[in-house]
Design a protein that fits this description.
2 domains
C-alpha cells in the first residue's frame, strides 16, 4: 500500500452511500456558489495546462451556452482575455 498525503485545498469525498453522495453534492454546490468557481472543470484545467487553447474552449462553450457551465466557460475566457491585456 502507498500512502499519499493530500495537500491543502484538496478534499476526499466518500460517496459510498446515498447519504454520502448527498453530502458530497451539497459540499460541491456550496463551494461553487461561494467561490464562483467550478470544481473539476476539465476545460479550465486543460487551458491552464496548455493542453487546449482559448479557441477550443470557446467552441465548447458555444455548444453549452444555454447552461451555467457554458456561461462559466465564456466568463473564464473573458477573465483570461482581460488578464492578457494587462
Amino acid at each position: 500500500m502507498k500512502v499519499l498525503q493530500l495537500g491543502r485545498g484538496i478534499a476526499w469525498l466518500d460517496t459510498g452511500t446515498y447519504d454520502n453522495m448527498l453530502e458530497a453534492s451539497e459540499f460541491v454546490r456550496t463551494i461553487e456558489h461561494r467561490q464562483g468557481l467550478k470544481i473539476a472543470c476539465l476545460e479550465e484545467i486543460a487551458l491552464v495546462n496548455h493542453w487546449i487553447d482559448q479557441k477550443q474552449v470557446a467552441e465548447r462553450a458555444k455548444t453549452m451556452r444555454g447552461s451555467s457551465y457554458g456561461r462559466y466557460l465564456l466568463q473564464l475566457l473573458d477573465d483570461r482575455s482581460l488578464k492578457d491585456k494587462h
